[in-house]
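Run log, item B.
One chain of 304 residues. Sequence copied directly from the ordering sheet:
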Amino acid sequence: MKTSTTILLLFLLCSTLVSYGQGENNIWCFGTNTGLDFNAGPPVLYPSAMDAFEGCTSICDASGSLIFYTSTSTVFDRNNNVMPNGSGLIGNSSSTMGAAIVQSNSNPNQYYLFTMTDIAQHTNSLHYSIIDMTLNGGLGDVVVGQKNILLDDDVEEKMVVARGAGCYTWLIVHHYTNPEFHAFKIDASGLDVTPIVSTSGFCNITNGYTRGEMKISPNDSNIALVNYENPWVVELHSFNNTTGVVSNAIDLDTIRAYGVSYSPDGSKLYVPTYSGNPAALYQYDLSLLPCINMTCRCCRMCRR
């Protein structure tokens, strides 16, 4: 079921990026004054104004033109300028998955910007702000009075956005010290601040889940997560994008990892080791799992 090989990190990065096919993801801003533009085929460098160690995100329109981007603490317009009310966001670019953007279902000119703090800050909080693209002469700004609104606390550095089964979206985060998932629904009525809470997973100790990525599968039906601090875990869960419930945890492996990605068709899971010389990339063939559809509730051992 599992194979490993030595890799270059650039290969993993490119393998992840090419899995996106929508214009909204065509420009990625990250790192120190850099980014990648995928609009014309092979990626080319794209200059940005931010300095982000980890957590950052950007959003484009359907044609692939940049709308805005963020380093979690600051939000920049498409001209690389800080929005007038765009500094001082409660977030930290050292957070693994410190930012996410979701367009409003009721107002296409507005976006929810979710920002997350760093575990090292010992606050472990999730906030959101509203970006209105009709402000600042069409370059966008954070709405006054709609900035740094606390949404959740005691969360770790894991956050994903999943498509709902209808005209709605899910924002999913993970609790810091127990195997809880919190799924927030965003629909035509706005953001529901009361999450769907699910318990799924095998780790339930103080500081059990901390840094490391969490990813949603291409068909929005599975969630994978890893952890690079003890206890080391590679977990796979089912996600019901109608109800927001996470369940049926599978304990795939126990390796120290920070990143995780799916193949474009969702049949493979890739996990690079965090340490080791040479570095290794583990491939998990999910089609070999008897419970890949996550419909039965057989014991943990038969799922290995």
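Observations after the first pass:
- Residues 8 and 279 are 8 Å apart (CA to CA).
- The chain has one domain: 14-257.
Flagged for discussion on Thursday.
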